[in-house]
Design brief:
Blueprint: H1 3-47, E1 51-56, E2 61-64, H2 66-72, H3 81-86, H4 96-103, E3 107-114, E4 120-132, E5 138-147, H5 149-167, E6 171-176, E7 181-184, H6 186-192, H7 196-199, H8 215-224, E8 230-237, E9 243-254, E10 260-269, H9 271-317, H10 323-349, E11 357-360, H11 361-373, E12 380-386, E13 392-395, H12 397-414, E14 420-428, H13 434-437, E15 444-451, H14 458-461, H15 481-491, E16 495-501, E17 505-513, E18 535-539, H16 543-555, E19 559-563, H17 566-575, E20 582-586, H18 594-604, E21 610-614, H19 619-628, E22 632-635, H20 640-654
Parallel strand pairs: 12-14, 18-19, 18-20, 20-21, 21-22
Antiparallel strand pairs: 1-2, 1-5, 3-4, 4-5, 6-7, 6-10, 8-9, 9-10, 11-13, 14-15, 15-17, 16-17
Length: about 650
């Protein structure tokens, strides 16, 4: 080889060495860059707070991030993923790792995982291809899992809250800070009649009744806009135009800075509750009236007794056809009316057990209408037509009064604006409607109450007997009147039918089974008074009552001893128990009442008959009377007829014999 060729080869070798050095430097630079990139990648992976792992096609974990190792254990690399993350012995079903290996696509799944400290957490897991073979097949799958346990708990809590709001009987409404409605629950629709789409975006003011506008509206908004909660009662309007009373609690919703963003209103329809409270107040007032009436009746009936007794005796002494006789009869008639008025007040105010007895219905109807007439305006005319001859019904007089008063009051209210006619008839039923014929197999009476008032719409006529249903405005009615009527009619084994034409009036027909009339009570028209003989001890703390009774009974043939204190009467009786055939005593007296006096006398002489008089008997008096063996209870003021018949009946039973 010549020199020239040798030098050429050396030069070529130098160039190759130089290129190799350059390539080595480049490779070193790439290797350094790769190491830096790998460090950054692993640093980034280590900083990920979600679970991150790489899994091969055999479900073996080949890599796990620091967070994953800390949460599931530092020994999970090399374990099967289903064992490391879910404590399973077999592949999960479904398995998104298997799905990604199969199709190379991204897959997602919500699943539970178990941490190293045995806590079960809910995760949202995503799988994707991390590395592929040269032919494109997935070689490694990366799995990301985010712990959504708190989110799921929050969602469950929110769901429970939403369910509670949606199922609540109270209306819930949410508005923005300007009052535009953003949400209402189903109860809002049930109460108001408005569907959700009809109110979204509207101001709640359209629900308020007219009386809630003005100063009330201004005060209400001034309270809630400054962040305070407002509570109170409002009158609102339903979609059908009817009014109802609601109790509302309206609270502001504030952002972190304290700015009001929304308002939440919780509203409850309290119309029924307020009506019930009013009903209770009315019952309490009636109870108070009953107590007051009892006290007044005692004194007033004593006064009436004196007037009636002296008037009856004056009539006996007056010349027939004289002006004096006419005047006295007028006094006596007015006294009877006063007596009846007191009796009716006591009848309606006192509590008593319902005792059904055969009674003539006609007189009860007339009595109720007399009491009602004075309470109605002059623009309402009452027409009554009592046609039934056999009018006996098994009933309680208080129930009949209550039934008629409720029906007639309703009719009067339907005519209060324009006036009209209230007609009450009592007839014997000839044709019984088919729908109730099965319940009324025997002869019936028909009590009809009709008016010429405003009438009832076809929709409402079906609901008038429902408790608390009323078409009146809040505070004008409780909705209990007709339900009470229905209850009374059904308790008497009867039926009631209502018919109405809007603008022309309403008619109620009550069908009641007729009772056997031979036992029914009716007014006695006998003029003659039973006379007799006997010695009577008469006790009343009003001297004038004793004086009048003495004069009256002396005329009927009896011998009277009168006392004004129970202590004196007991002393007289104890001194000679056989001196008397009968004791008549007032119930209410100072220091010792009539029952106590009767008990003391019966300890001395058990067979002595006792009649107790009072202007006010309570149900407990009947029980006590039976226990003590009282012969009769007579309501004051006692007419001469009632007193004479009671004395004759008692003395005929005992024959005045002392067997002590």
């Amino acid at each position: 080889m010549d020199r020239e060729n040798l030098l050429q080869e050396i030069a070529d070798l130098q160039r190759k060495v130089s290129r190799l050095e350059e390539q080595q430097a480049a490779s070193l630079k790439v290797e350094t860059a790769l190491r830096e990139s790998e460090g950054k990648l692993f640093g980034l992976v280590g900083a990920v707070t979600d679970k991150l792992s790489m899994i091969d096609e055999n479900h073996t974990i080949v890599f796990a991030s620091t967070t994953t190792l800390e949460k599931f254990g530092h020994d999970i690399v090399g374990q099967k993923c289903y064992r490391a993350f879910r404590r399973r012995d077999t592949v999960c079903d479904p398995c998104i790792v298997s799905q990604t290996f199969a199709d190379g696509m991204i897959h997602e799944l919500e699943q539970d995982m178990i941490t190293r400290d045995n806590r079960t957490i809910n995760c949202w897991t995503t799988s994707n291809v991390a590395a592929r073979y040269e032919d494109g097949r997935p070689r490694l799958v990366v799995e990301f899992s985010r712990d959504i346990t708190r989110q799921k708990q929050a969602e469950a809590k929110l769901k429970r809250l939403c369910t509670a709001i949606n199922q609540s009987d109270e209306a819930v409404m949410i508005t923005d800070r300007n009052g535009a409605i953003q949400y209402v629950n189903p109860a809002f629709t049930d109460i108001t009649g408005y569907e959700q789409p009809e109110v979204i975006g509207k101001n709640p003011g359209f629900l308020m009744a007219e009386k809630n506008h003005g100063p009330f509206h201004a005060e209400f908004w001034s309270t809630i806009k400054v962040g305070s909660t407002w509570k109170g009662y409002t009158t609102s309007t339903k979609k059908d135009g009817s009014h109802y009373t609601q109790h509302a609690t309206i609270s502001p919703v504030t952002a972190n800075g304290g700015t009001v963003t929304n308002f939440v209103a919780v509203m409850r329809d309290v119309t029924v509750e307020l009506n019930m409270e009013e009903q209770i107040r009315q019952l309490q007032k009636m109870e108070a009236i009953g107590v007051l009436a009892g006290g007044i009746a005692h004194d007033f009936n004593n006064i009436l007794g004196i007037i009636i007794t002296n008037a009856e005796m004056a009539i006996e002494d007056a010349l027939p056809g004289s002006e004096t006789l006419y005047s006295i009869r007028q006094v006596l008639g007015a006294s009877y009316r006063a007596k009846e008025l007191i009796r009716q007040i006591l009848l309606f105010s006192r509590r008593s057990e319902k005792e059904l007895m055969p009674l003539h219905l006609g007189p009860l109807v007339n009595e109720s209408l007399k009491m009602l007439r004075s309470t109605l305006p002059a623009s309402i005319e009452i027409k009554q037509n009592i046609k039934a001859v056999s009018d006996a019904v098994l009933c309680d007089p208080i129930q009949i009064h209550q039934l008629l008063m409720n029906l007639c009051t309703n009719s009067a209210q339907a005519m209060q604006e324009a006036g009209g006619t209230l007609a009450v008839t009592l007839t014997e039923a000839r044709n019984i409607p088919d729908k109730i014929a099965g319940y009324m197999p025997g002869p019936c009476l028909v009590l009809t109450v009709s008016d010429t008032g405003c009438g009832i719409s076809p929709d409402n006529i079906k609901k008038i007997f429902d408790p608390y249903f009323t078409t009146k405005n809040p505070g004008e009615g409780t909705g209990l009147g007709l339900s009470v009527v229905l209850g009374i009619v059904r308790s008497l084994q009867g039926e009631i039918i209502a018919r109405s034409t809007p603008g022309r009036g309403t008619t109620f027909k009550i069908y009641l089974p007729r009772a056997v009339s031979r036992n029914a009570k009716s007014p006695d028209t006998k003029n003659g008074l039973p006379r007799g003989e006997g010695r009577i001890l008469f006790i009343d703390d009003e001297a004038q009552v004793g004086n009048a009774a003495s004069r009256r009974l002396t005329r009927l043939g009896y011998t009277l001893t009168t006392e004004t204190t129970p202590q004196n009467a007991l002393a007289v009786f104890r001194s000679d128990p056989a001196a008397f055939d009968l004791v008549i005593t007032d119930k209410t007296m100072p220091d010792m009442n009539g029952f106590e006096l009767a008990a003391a006398m019966k300890e001395i002489r058990p067979d002595i008959p006792v009649i107790i008089c009072s202007g006010y008997f309570v149900p407990e008096d009947t029980t006590l009377s039976k226990k003590l063996g009282i012969a009769a209870l007579l309501p004051k003021p006692v007419t001469k007829k009632d007193l004479a018949e009671a004395i004759q009946s008692v003395l005929d039973d005992t024959k005045g014999e002392y067997r002590g």
